Amino acid sequence: MVCDRLFPRGAAALAALALTLVQSVAHAQADATSSPAASNVPGAINPRIYPDRRVTFEITAPNARSVLVAGGDGLGHGPFPMIKSADGVWRVTLPPVVPGFHYYWFILDGVAVSDPASKTYFGYGKEISGLEAPDPDGDFYSVKAVPHGEVREKWYWSRVTGAWRRAFVYTPPGYDSSRTRRYPLLILQHGYGEDETGWTRQGKAQFILDNLIAAGKAKPMIVVMDRGYGSKTGMLALHFDNDTPVKEIGRAFDAFDHVVLRDLIPTIDASYRTIPDRDHRAMAGLSMGGMETLFIALHHQDEFAYIASLSGPIVQNPNSSQSLAAALRAPFDVKSAYGGSFADASRFNRRVKLLWMGAGTAEPADFRLGIVGAVKALRAHRVHLVYFESRGTAHEWQTWRRDLKDLAPRLFR
Amino acid sequence: MVCDRLFPRGAAALAALALTLVQSVAHAQADATSSPAASNVPGAINPRIYPDRRVTFEITAPNARSVLVAGGDGLGHGPFPMIKSADGVWRVTLPPVVPGFHYYWFILDGVAVSDPASKTYFGYGKEISGLEAPDPDGDFYSVKAVPHGEVREKWYWSRVTGAWRRAFVYTPPGYDSSRTRRYPLLILQHGYGEDETGWTRQGKAQFILDNLIAAGKAKPMIVVMDRGYGSKTGMLALHFDNDTPVKEIGRAFDAFDHVVLRDLIPTIDASYRTIPDRDHRAMAGLSMGGMETLFIALHHQDEFAYIASLSGPIVQNPNSSQSLAAALRAPFDVKSAYGGSFADASRFNRRVKLLWMGAGTAEPADFRLGIVGAVKALRAHRVHLVYFESRGTAHEWQTWRRDLKDLAPRLFR
After folding, report:
1. Chain A residues with CB inside 8 Å of B125's CB?
2. Torsion of CA B286, B290, B292, B298, to 10 degrees
3. B232's torsion region: left (phi>0), alpha (psi -120 to 50) or beta?
4. Peptide bond before residue A47 is cis, with ω within 30 degrees of 0
5. CB B107 within 8 A of CB B67
6. How many Cβ atoms from other residues are within 10 Å of residue B132's Cβ?
7. Residue A318 neighbours by CB under 8 Å, 6+ apart
8. Residue B2 and residue A30: Cα distance in Å, rounded?
9. Helix pair A288-299, A246-258: axis angle to 10 deg
10. pLDDT tens per residue, chain A (413 residues)?
11. Which candidate from A3, A41, A125 shows the least CB-CB separation from B126?
């Protein structure tokens, strides 16, 4: 308030006024063709999305001195300054965003806060806003008039961590009425900073599977989505960055390995009508969940016949003293990678029914080049694998939704 | 930043500094005995709760000029100004709060924002922060080593609204393994501004039922928690306040009545092993959900034998032209209330197996006096009912958790 009174007609105020006028006109013109994002809370008219996927964000903050909007890669290269109108409402219209789901937040006088008009999603270790931008090819994850499975909240005691854990379990359409039919099991993991809610809230995995199963493209399966941290607190035991020695990350993942093998699989097999053998068990994960999948499933091939890494950074040796950054750039060594899992290609091909790897074409170079390098080296070594690219999407959920659409039909064949 | 430079040693800055020092000391002293709230995101050390239920809130906002914390009744009579430390962190320690769950938010330079350190909950029509303050008698809603039911996300098509709807369905322990056993059904509704997630996220209904069933105190039952708005958008068709004519509210509730009778019950009876008759069907709701329950269940006694209003404001005639405020204060007329449901007390007593009403002793007078007035008038008229009071709690979730603990054992006897 004091600042507002000090500079009522200053240069900054005049510039802001001019921009406000431009902004108001753009807003008024655009309203007729734009519509509220599906990720808004009911009744909230902003954020609004235009047919060309420009997005208008808005927040009322008459006393703020600076408001920006920032978010995931697909939102563009922000943060984007917002402009204050005479009515105290800050607005900005972003250039067309990438289709799909993007985390975002406002920076209000320097503080990152959620948009009160948005649903929140667990990412970056907290609850933050998300923007659902329509994809012209996004029909595969919409709620349609097909038989629907259920997503069940399952609580179980972990002897490994000494704590109660929550997993979500997708049971396919017909699960309750068939009574005796048994199903294969997919363990499907989220990324770093996310949790067991990610695949159904951000990923819409239940609708992707409902639609694939209804079309006869995927076999009915049970999917369990657990919290990918094997500690009592339910978060990773360390915060890692480019300088973290890989072996420390490997140790943190070991705890989750133990949860999966000793607590989770026995619980799910005892609670649901799974077919409890390796030929009917898959593990897949995105980003950190892909790293975990490769560490865990390649190490326990007696437990998993289907293995998928969705944008999982390639770290070949979980016991390495290398920094994460160095490990990501290391050339892929087919003989030694992942404890020598691929050394004997024909043995691997006989044993593992599917190795699936994917990346978005707009992902960070370190991630994508590592994945592409591994794919090339493995193929040259005659390891059978499927490599899938999501066009134009980054290290974000739209990549992983498309991944699941490609992956699920290949499972349990 | 400009303001900070303009007043480096001003009176306000000196006062703030003094308060900051006091605050820092209090904070340092308290840390040893306080612990992070269970409602924090994993790893967040604030809000912190002390053994006497004082609560310290904290947010880093070096550039903010004013930060307050505000919230639900049980938090105290805020908003409470927070004090800025030299490190840019704003803090306040509140006097002991009421046990249980309280919505809260920060007011950051005039803008209501969620606390990045808190889980969010759907209330007030948006996602906001919540504080879980321990209750020495709160064991009944904790996750314990007892058999656990499941909470299932159920999508269904509503012909009434022409839209897909999501309900959550609690199935009791043993539901999957028994295969043929059938269960009674409780429809359990949230309050105004909340949604179908409220009873499991804020209310912990699944743990309350798990614990009661394990102790043999409640019969195993199926519980469905739906979104209490019968419109395509999934929110109430109107925003109501004290001046809204009751008949407009009644009309908005009519749409939900149709959803419950025509869409929800048939869907649940077709999808789960319910006992699909009135003697095995209950409806209960809190606040607005209590109003809905009384309107719907008293009007359809052929469908419901158990009827419970948890802090539901008493509005006797949904077709009245009275304002809401006037209707809440009207003396209870046993002959005409709720379409004459109670006029013949002995007929009502034969037909309705349980009428249950509850309120917290710290609720707003309009709500509580209306409920108490109805209870007195109904008892004088020899209508059988149970009245339950939650000591020291307001129009908040701790009242409703205690209500469910009292109510569930009385159902389906």
Report:
1. 41-43
2. 150
3. alpha
4. yes
5. yes
6. 22
7. A246, A247, A249, A250, A253, A254, A295
8. 35
9. 70
10. 222 222 222 333 333 333 333 333 334 444 669 999 999 999 999 999 999 999 999 999 999 999 999 998 899 988 999 999 999 999 999 999 999 999 999 999 999 999 999 999 999 999 999 999 999 999 999 999 999 999 999 999 999 999 999 999 999 999 999 989 999 999 999 999 999 999 999 999 999 999 999 999 999 999 999 999 998 888 888 888 889 999 999 998 999 999 999 999 999 999 999 999 999 999 999 999 999 999 999 999 999 999 999 999 999 998 999 999 999 999 999 999 999 999 999 999 999 999 999 999 999 988 899 999 999 999 999 999 999 999 999 999 999 999 999 999 999 99
11. A41
Residue burial A299-315, b: 16+ Cβ < 10 Å; e: rest: bbeebbbbbbbbbbbbb
ipTM given for this complex: 0.91
d(CA B80, CA B97): 13
Q: What is the pTM of this model?
A: 0.92
CB–CB of A313/A370 below 8 Å?
yes
Q: Identify which of B120, B126, B155 has the shortest CB distance to residue A148.
A: B155
CB contact under 8 A, A179 and B179: yes
A193: left (phi over 0), alpha (psi -120 to 50) or beta: left
- Nearest-CA distance from A378 to chain B in Å? 38
What are the φ and ψ backbone dihedral angles of A375, each rounded to 5 degrees? -60, -45
